[in-house]
Amino acid sequence: MTAQGPDDPPAGPAPAEERVPAATAEAGRGEEDASARGRVKTQRWLSKRAARLEAELQALAGDIYRHLHGGDPRGLSEPRSFQLTLPLEPKPAGAEPAPLFAQLKAQTREWDMQAKGYAPGRVYCHRCASHACAHAVPPSAGTVFSGYSPTGVPQWADLVQVLLAARNERVDLLYDERPATVAMFIPGRELKSQLLHTFGRASKTYDILGQVVCGYFRPPADSAERLALTIQVVEWRGAFGSFQLDLNLIGPDPEDAAPYLAGQERLRRALERARRKVADIERRVQPADPAAPRNLTPLREVPQVIRGLVQDLERQGRQGVRRTVHAEERGTQQRPVHMAIEDLHRAGPDQFFFDEHRRTIVVLGSRHRAHAFTPEGRHATSFSLDPAAVDRRVRRGRWRVATEEERGGLLKAVAEQR
Ligand SMILES: [Zn+2]
Questions:
Q1: Annotated domain spans of the chain
Q2: Distance 253 CA to ligand 1 centre (A)
Q3: How far does the centroid of ligand 1 lie from the alpha carbon of residue 83, in Å?
Q4: Which pLDDT score is estimated for 330?
Q5: Does the global pTM surpass 0.90?
Q6: How far apart are CA 381 and CA 228, in angstroms?
Q7: What is the pLDDT of residue 6?
């Protein structure tokens, strides 16, 4: 594209309506009035050209949306806009923007996601008003959705951290020699407790009613990362404001997740059961006749459905194969070692116990946290434990207060490792 000033007549033959009006040629003659009139006419001529291009661009974007993404521009619930970057001659140095077609294609794809109000495998990002941004998917296989930031950005955290923060009693099972699947229900209002109203807290265009976080699923042979899943019940509005309810499985791309989930027959069945129940609630809320009033009462069953899913998932039992020492060590790196070391240094002598069963030294931290270390100073696991459970373990003789020697030995060994 070449830039043209109002004083340059267009070069070459042009359609009559695009030819510079005669007044423009008189513009430089010095007479104030004629010059002002000329500028007005030139502006009118240029803005007409811009309007034609604008209409053509809008039509082009609509056609791309319709033909490439299968969308209907008239079905969009709110106005859409796009931003284009077109370099002018001389082109600026540096990275060249994508061709116009590629830019429109990418941006109209996003229209589609917004129009759907919902995207399988993704969490809606209120800040970017999109499912397509990087915030919408877990950053790594072991992370789950932990709620929204005040400005609506999805937050992700390691499953074990989320379980520890919630003082989940079963977190310990993740580190057993034969680890079990641990699942936990998180109500929607907890996920949105930080979210501000202006960033979609009360939105029904997209609303997470509740979720399950669960894991870990064993890594395939070629990966070191364990998989955790977030499973949400999402209420959203489809075309013409129709009520929609879906079970959304959030995790890595289906292709990446497949090797983890191969053979997880119980998981697949649990998901299927929950999906059927969710579809049933959806049907009862929104009768087939769109003119009939919506009945929101069945929505009260959603927490029950999610709790049922938690039970189904935990019934999966222990994972059949013992983890190798290698896997054990890989897991260690992902544990909240930092917090464990902090608690270790703050703990008094009466907060150290020796676990006779596992031959580890357990340190009690604040907020019911507990951390197990090997006598050699390696952090083995962290879990949450209420005082009653500590008493029980001591009474049963599984734990005893650690000796001065054991405590000193541990502190020394940890210090030497760091
Ligand atoms: Zn975002």
A1: 1-116, 134-314, 335-417
A2: 18
A3: 17
A4: 40
A5: no
A6: 18
A7: 42
